[in-house]
Amino acid sequence: EPDVTIVSGLKDMVVFEGDDVTFRCQVSHENARDIEWKLQDVALQNNEMNEISVEKGKIHTLTLRKVTEQDVGTITFRVGPHTSTA
């Protein structure tokens, strides 16, 4: 299996309380495994508040819905040994 690297990392975002925010991270290969999204070192799952998806096979997205003050912090995207933060 080829080593998957991060081609385009996360960008810092500023949003208003109650808005949605989307983070994108592009990886080098499609069907990447061992992917993880975290907010303040807490692993995020795909649910009604967090939408985790893949666009065009290589662009991994995380949408946080209706953010609150408690959502302030560092978002981390990890693929294998590589990480990107915002």
Automatic annotation (TrEMBL):
Top-level taxon: Eukaryota
Name by which UniProt lists this protein: OBSCN protein
Organism taxonomic ancestry: Eukaryota, Metazoa, Chordata, Craniata, Vertebrata
Domain Ig-like: 2-86
Compartment(s) where it occurs, according to its Swiss-Prot or TrEMBL record: Cytoplasm
Keywords linked to the UniProt accession: Cytoplasm, Disulfide bond, Phosphoprotein
InterPro entries: Ig-like_dom, Ig-like_dom_sf, Ig-like_fold, Ig_I-set, Obscurin/Obscurin-like_Reg
Source species: Piaya cayana
PANTHER family named among the record's database cross-references: OBSCURIN, SI:DKEY-31G6.6
Pfam families reported in the protein's UniProt record: I-set
Entry GO CC: cytoplasm
Gene name of this polypeptide: Obscn_11
Primary localization: cytoplasm
